[in-house]
Fold these 4 entries.
Entry 1:
Amino acid sequence: MDFNMKKLASDAGIFFTRAVQFTEEKFGQAEKTELDAHFENLLTRADSTKNWTEKILRQTEVLLQPNPSARVEEFLYEKLDRKVPSRVTNGELLAQYMAEAASELGPTTPYGKTLIKVAEAEKRLGGAERDFIHTASINFLTPLRNFLEGDWKTISKERRLLQNRRLDLDACKARLKKAKAAEAKATCEGDTVPDFQETRPRNYILSASASALWSDEVDKAEQELRVAQTEFDRQAEVTRLLLEGISSTHVNHLRCLHEFVESQTTYYAQCYRHMLDLQKQLGSSQGAIFPGTFVGTTEPASPPLSSTSPTTTAATMPVGPSVAGLAPTGEAALCLEEVAPPASGTRKARVLYDYEAADSSELALLADELITVYSLPGMDPDWLIGERGNKKGKVPVTYLELLS
């Protein structure tokens, strides 16, 4: 094997010089070239961007895949440049178990029919989760990972090269300083007039020769310093341009963040729609299975966030409860004082929030109080009849937590 011994010795010498300069700087025995304040701010911002990007990336991966073993498996597949196998989501697995249970326990029984309905809803939830994970991985995780594995590696490489150039520059400065000090000392000794009656006048000749040698050494050190300064300035400019590119990285990550929020909004809106459909199916079937029992609507008071996406717009619901009366449109309203509670179907309810009655037909509510509620034929499902002592009136379902 053909080794270039001269290059190897030169590289070893440069490495040794940098190591000595770095060690002396750490112990305060050598001067260090400081970067300007703007450059230091760019370095600080770049380091913060890298650190927080790593944390956001890792936590988003945990959000999308809580199972650490599955994350390790996916990481190995990516490193081996192999396709990650399709994985069943938890919702889809639950749907499979429910469907198998319904088949074994009896698909025609009330319990079996309900299991089938819930299994279908859970399967749709699992599919929505799969789409969300896929979209978030492409639109959010991949750009963050590309920055860490691409742009940041380039920045780190150029920063290490800049550090080496700075060590070379400071070593040249130290070498020049020592050469000038030695030259000045040799010059002072050479300026002394010798006594030729001495037996050794050669000391004068040696001092003059040393002064000339140190003068050559100073010239050589100055030439090396100019070269080192040029290389340092060039590398500092290259590194500065890369660090200023972090602003473009922030813009790109901002766009990816908007896309992540959009996909997450779509996902939760789909989940809300699927569960609302399931709730309506179970509510209608419960009335047939358990006649005479109370069946109320327990829709949440706050809808999911609206979005510009068509899927999310279709999944949103009105913010407030309906203000329809007790009777259908065109019919006379019932007189609440003349209405007697049904023999069965009354329930206790805890008030979640304060509610101010809009008119005399409604019952004002205070948070955390307990009231008796029941439904009447023809009533809007968003409203119930509430009783507190000898007072009764309409109350919105969304303000209540139904108890046993």
Note: The radius of gyration is 40 Å.
Entry 2:
Amino acid sequence: MVKMSVDPVQVMSGQVNELKVTPSSNGESRGPWEEKEFDQDHLGLTTKPKSPKPENAVTIAVSSRVLFRTEREQKVFEQKGVEEYLQYQVEHENEPFAPGPAFPFVKALETVNSRLREMYPQSEELFDIVLVTYNHAHVGIRLINTINHHNLFIERFCMTGGSSPIGYLKAWHTNLYLSADAEKVREALAEGIAAATMFMPEKLTEVSESQLRVAFDGDAVLFSDESERIFKAHGLDKFFEHEREHEDTLLDHGPLKGFLEALGKLQKKFYAKGHRLDCPIRTYLVTARSAASSGIRALKTLRAWGLEIDEALFLAGAPKGPMLEKIRPHIYFDDQMFHVEGAAEMGTVAAHVPYGIAQKQPCKKSTNA
């Protein structure tokens, strides 16, 4: 099993030498000058598209420690303190950070936005990315330089100077928060914000440059942990019995249901233009449930919610890593570290959702890489 580091932003082992990046999708060099989705300043020069209003957008809040690789800077902070850390950042502000585990996901969001702007030039129903960091404003120059270096379209910053960002996340109408700080992720979940802790795999599988792929576990991620509680308390046979008896009873929602709804809302905009088969968003359910014994309740619940999953994989307890290696999602969400580790071992960027009964069970202690 792959070794997970205590600090999620540290690489499990080795270094990722290259991360394939898609061409910029922020609109700076696409299409004619007169396209409607671009603004022109008073000199007639084209500028970047406007950020949508938070209430209209699908807001993705991403920590700087998962969007970029900041292990070296984190060590300076831990070993020498905040003052030398800030001085180090100022001295290196013209050196861009390398891409982190959330980077391909953010680039895929921008690819989807580019397609949406082409079809709906006036619409603000887009992904809106907010960079969230505990950093002091002094570090902002290096972050902006890095964003420009990688040609990202991130206009919204939330630099808290060490304070908790949770209140700001609520003000942004955040649909998903990705962080390296497990405590802040739990705090966000407690406030009803979909959130997950991200990890960098030892190796990194190349992902699609034209289609955003998001994979979800079922219980305690999309659904509540009701059925998982039955399994933990009474075993597999009782779990199957419970699912058969409650086949027509909908599962309650889990912490990431709202994010799947947001993805589905954007998917339908493509479907309305005849792009169901080549939609740049694709979703996956990857669950340890068995199809015949317990899968029907999950599918009926999704259908009753009005949600479509493009692909559903019922693995009946088989390892998820090999399936995820074939899917190659930009991100995979699971509530159990065992599955997160298995996914990472196969090169998938996995995110832990610390929700439900599985968090109260003893688990194998992670070790340093």
Note: Confidence is low (pLDDT under 50) at residues 1-46, 362-369.
Entry 3:
Amino acid sequence: MRAAGGVQQQFRGGSRAGCSPGCGGAAEGLPFPVQSCAMSETGGEETGSAEASGFSDLSDSELMEFLELEDAQESSASPGKPGPSSELPGKDGKPRSLQNCERGLDISSPMQRFHLQYLYVTDLSTQNWCELQMAYGKELPDLVTPEKAAVLDTGASIHLARELELHDLVTVPVTSKEDAWAIKFLNILSMIPTLQSEGRIREFPVFGEVEGVLLVGVIDELHYTAKGELELAELKTRRRPLLPLEAQKKKDCFQVSLYKYIFDAMVQGKVTPASLIHHTKLCPDKALGPSVLSHARRGGFTVKSLGDLMELVFLSLTLSDLPVIDILKIEYIHQESATLLGTEIVAFEEKEVKGKVQHYMAYWKGLREPRGVDIEEAWKCRTCSYTDICKWRKGGGVLSSTLEPQPKKSNK
């Protein structure tokens, strides 16, 4: 949904959000979750966007479903259909090469090359599937087919419908990236007391520094069980009425483990405002826009700047007695019938998670080149959009810089 001026962003809190300990707000709390509408300031560059807000995260697995063997076995080859070229037009219409993607150590780190201030949880979980595919996706994001995009849209619609079961969404215009992050902070401030009073929230933003890199994401759902345990429930919708392969489950399990890793650090006071400001380059002293301030006041929060809100958020996280997550659960739902296909309970192994994070972050920091899949998982390549240009396949499992990109041969 679009509004005049830019992209929307919403408050995502509970219907009865109150003020958490230490916030200094009124008891009435935020009456609804709100979405911001990013706008450009007069005479300046565009400052607010979905990317700038810091919490957008692909929370579903539909795209990966296309990369599984079960789909590959049923798909037939289309010899007349052109594949991706090794050199595709960039934004300026000129060809762009993949050499930068595969020779990153000679130029800059991927974080610098892709102009990233932070990573999404799904960036790391996609590395768990195929790191090189993820790298190609950053370099050539336009290769997502309309069919894949349609499936992703269906999954997003299902997530939105579930969110609307708990609360309505209200749009708020923003004028800067500070405003966009302020909306997210207001959402957190509304969700914490809602979780405590009503026992369930959805679309909870998480963020934290991991191995020197800021990692952000969105938890599908948090709720308390009958035993009083805090459970994370991740929804994964499926295009076909089948459970995913073990390789897909492995990726999903790593994703929810990362959510717990970050959330636990947030409620334990291990995430600091200084770290967030350092990575995002936010200006905490910048005055918030009038629309954001208006909605903050409606929630009982007397603030003027992003720094004021940040102080309330970090106090609320540490003083509200939120526990760490006890249970990690993944629910697989069939898109068309909404039938529950199965549930996966994930055992959190902190040492294993830390080891994987260190390995994946080494790529983002430019300490090593990206790797493709091992020979045992070469079946993943069958429906990959980047098969024709993948040097890992051409090099027999070695990313050789001596292999130059070659255009796909004509079928004439």
Note: The first helix runs from residue 50 to 53.
Entry 4:
Amino acid sequence: MAAATVSKFCSSRNLENAKDLRLKPLQNLNVLKLQRNFAAHRLTSTKVLSYQNSKGGSGTIYADSNEVERPWKTSDARLVLEDGSIWRAKSFGATGTQVGEVVFNTSLTGYQEILTDPSYAGQFVLMTNPHIGNTGVNPDDEESSQCFLGGLIIRSLSISTSNWRCTETLGDYLAKRNIIGIYDVDTRAITRRLRQDGSLIGVLSTDDSRTDEDLLEMAKNWKIVGVDLISGVSCDAPYEWSEKTDSDWEFKRDQHSANKYHVIAYDFGIKHNILRRLTSYGCKITVVPSTWPASETLKLKPDGVLFSNGPGDPAAVPYAVETVKGIIGKVPVFGICMGHQLIGQALGGKTFKMKFGHHGGNHPVSDLRTSRVDISAQNHNYAVDPASLPEGAEVTHVNLNDNSCAGLAFPKMKLMSLQYHPESSPGPHDSDLAFGEFVELMKANKV
């Protein structure tokens, strides 16, 4: 007999009749457990009923004469998608209402890296791995100074943390950074919808005063295509970066030299680990804002220039394309993700929005030059159209899931680029070799 039923049943009888109860289900339920459960329910009006069962056993039932306040969390949040679908959920982290583009990420772990990746600005990230939060968060896994994504969508929120590096729970972490999270939602169904229909604009809300129609209207009126997002995640002024990969995580100690090459890194939403890996490979790093003029960069006479990852539509930042145009061909350059797309446009090529993008730590990429296959981490919604590139530009890598362009080279222009994250280590360190290639490119240019 369910607890609420027992409560209602018992409260309808007086103490004299309660002793005559002959309820076998009460024997099957652990009576002590039943008592604890009722106590946990924080009954607003409680009657204590003694009873004696058919076998002579006795005990006490805590009965509610009014209402039971549930100790478990009930649905208090909604995700409303632009296609009109409404998904009820439970909230954690911050509260409020937020609009964003919903994308799914297939990584099994590494959610803190995802939360602090500036390339997720303007997006809600749905994790396809159903269980999130068990490792908590820690100060060592931050990829930027703050969280830039609009919200986090997960199936099951871990009720405990067990990692030795954990300093706080995921919920507390998100609350401090004003990021909305929802759980107990069918992430598999939403993922299938995104795969079928493509990325969708959605609204996350914990505000009961807003109707479903209000939230749907917000989703339909919000746009991410054609919006400059990199200016909101870039640094404000140049600064020097000197931190290497921590010795506990370094895995190629025998081949790095100290400050041999000076690299200017354009911050379109750069991740800290890109800077750490470059420094570990013997580079002195100067990070500059996304609007830093090409002429100022060339005045510093760098050995190479890095165009970093970043969020949004590369066609929405023509000023960045002009900067890339002013630098390529003059010094060796390396583009990652947004940097790769900007290089494609600077060469005269075109970029296009993918159906649902690539987001995850398990994407196979083939190096067409060697037939080597790397397992890569990816996060992008746009790609370069190889057919639009000029003669001399070659596709060096392809994503084996859909054969999209995942890397470019143009030897005459002294450039290389990748449409994934070589600094990220979702398990393998396959792609880290790209930093060595960039160093070799700078070395050859110095000779």
Note: The chain has 13 helices and 21 strands.
